[in-house]
Design goal:
Number of domains: 2
Structural class: mainly alpha
CATH class of the largest domain: Mainly Alpha
Bound molecules: ligand IN0
Number of strands: 2
Order of helices and strands: HHHHHHHHHHEEHHHHHHHHHHHH
Length: 420
């Protein structure tokens, strides 16, 4: 926590956001939710799993309105179970494929548990106690159950196809089309399922679920950004998600990009990957602009603004080939607090698109195409958003925050002296 403050020490707005986040009172939604959990031990175990598997995203799920909170929580846990099986390199392939293809039936089997995950699988425990998830899944209204089972069926089979080597060339995803298909299975389908859950809850209009392309883009934008960011980590774990059709233009071997002598090819390859992701932005903004419910809007907008911030951070950033890069906690918290309406979301996207534009270099082979993709995004914004009143307070907090910064530095000095 202290290090999060230190990382943002020169960014008063982020310090303010961190303090705000830490000390803000609980929302009405969350209070009601926690009261309900106190009276329902079995449901509480599901939320404990949720909080274990994803810290910050779990908080966002728990802010959803009552009708959607449990369905989305269970959807998330079921997908996490499926993901853990897909991810596990210690499972024999035929066993893995059998599980993936039948997972939509497994979630209806009371008392089913799974102890075969590798010891290092981080969500092994979730599958060991999966009976808890299944029990709560079976308590959902059938209209929610069918959505979750339908997506689980499609995703499990898509993952199984990839696991047996379809759409791949050796260890690598082959074409951009294959890349889009893989991301559709693991993330686009999540967009389909969530949109169906929103509509089933009647918190959103039918229109939100009808436009499949937009729901798909919501997932692809997140997943592709993660795939770029995680180059090094995935490489070390023997996974390759970047399509050969893109990286093959710049190297013979996917691992070559970590070599110092390949630096310029690595730069070009990275910008080709970022260009591919930028194409999804207009769809993302269109989808978000169609949402009506406040809790659904926050839930959907937060991961998307995190992704555009991450994309701006990784663009032209050679560090991704050496280590994990992440946006500062203070930056993330500021984005979470700001993502409450479409005007703010547009302002945020504009900000990061501008950063990408400034990092775009005329010597890059993708310079022109990136400029055009950015142009398209700006056109979308100009056509759909009249320049409205400034909604984000920008620098007016910098003076207010000064005493706080001084206080923090004081705390640090005291802390240091105590331990010295
Ligand atoms: C998600 C998505 C998600 C949220 C809201 C709307 C969505 C619409 C379409 C597709 C996905 C949508 O968001 C989470 C965000 C998340 O988990 N963030 C991590 C941080 C990180 O870096 O991983 C966190 O721990 O906070 C997401 O990434 N995915 C996801 C999974 C299930 C559900 Cl129900 C919603 C994963 C993925 C693969 C991108 C779909």
């Amino acid at each position: 926590m202290l290090s999060a403050f230190l990382d943002s020490i020169t960014k008063p707005a982020e310090i303010k956001a961190l303090l705000n986040y830490k000390f803000s009172p609980k929302s009405e939604n969350k209070r009601r939710h926690q009261q309900a959990l106190a009276a329902d031990a079995s449901k509480k175990r599901c939320y404990d799993f949720l909080n274990m598997t994803s810290r910050s995203f779990a908080a966002v799920i728990q802010e959803l309105d009552d009708d959607l909170r449990d369905p989305v929580c269970l959807f998330y846990l079921v997908l996490r179970g499926l993901d853990t099986i897909e991810d596990d390199m210690t499972l024999p392939l035929d066993r893995k494929v059998e599980l993936l293809r039948s997972f939509d039936k497994i979630i209806y089997q009371r008392n089913w548990t799974f102890k075969e995950s590798g010891p290092n699988e981080k969500d092994r425990d979730l599958l060991v106690h999966f009976d808890v998830v299944i029990e709560e899944f079976l308590r959902l209204q059938p209209r929610f159950q069918v959505v979750i089972a339908d997506i689980t069926h499609k995703m499990g089979n898509g993952m199984a196809d990839y696991a047996v080597g379809e759409h791949r060339e050796n260890t690598s995803v082959a074409t951009v089309k294959d890349f889009d298909l893989y991301c559709h299975y693991v993330a686009g389908l999540v967009g389909y399922g969530l949109s169906d859950l929103f509509v089933a809850s009647e918190l959103e209009n039918k229109q939100v679920a009808d436009d499949k392309e937009l729901s798909n883009s919501m997932g692809l934008f997140l997943q592709k950004t993660n795939i770029i960011r995680d180059y090094r980590e995935d490489l070390e774990e023997g996974r390759q998600f970047w399509p050969r059709e893109i990286w093959g233009k710049y190297a013979n071997n996917f691992a070559d990009f970590i070599k110092p002598e390949k630096k310029e090819d690595a730069r070009s390859c990275l910008s080709a990957m970022v260009l591919n992701v930028l194409h999804h932005v207009p769809d993302v903004l269109t989808y978000l602009s169609r949402l009506h419910n406040q809790s659904v809007f926050n839930f959907c907008a937060i991961p998307q603004v995190m992704a555009i911030a991450t994309l701006a951070l990784v663009f032209n950033n050679m560090d991704i080939y050496q280590r994990n890069v992440k946006i500062r906690k203070g930056e993330a918290v500021k984005l979470i607090l700001d993502s409450t309406n479409m005007d703010n979301v547009i302002t945020i996207f504009r900000h990061y698109i501008k950063i990408i534009s400034q990092k775009n270099e005329a010597t890059d082979p993708n310079f022109m195409e990136i400029s055009m993709a950015i142009g398209k995004i700006e056109q979308w914004i100009a056509a759909n958003y009249k320049p409205s009143k400034v909604v984000l307070k920008s620098s007016d907090s910098s003076l207010l925050i000064l005493p706080i910064v001084i206080g923090l530095v004081g705390m640090l000095v005291i802390n240091y002296l105590q331990h010295a």
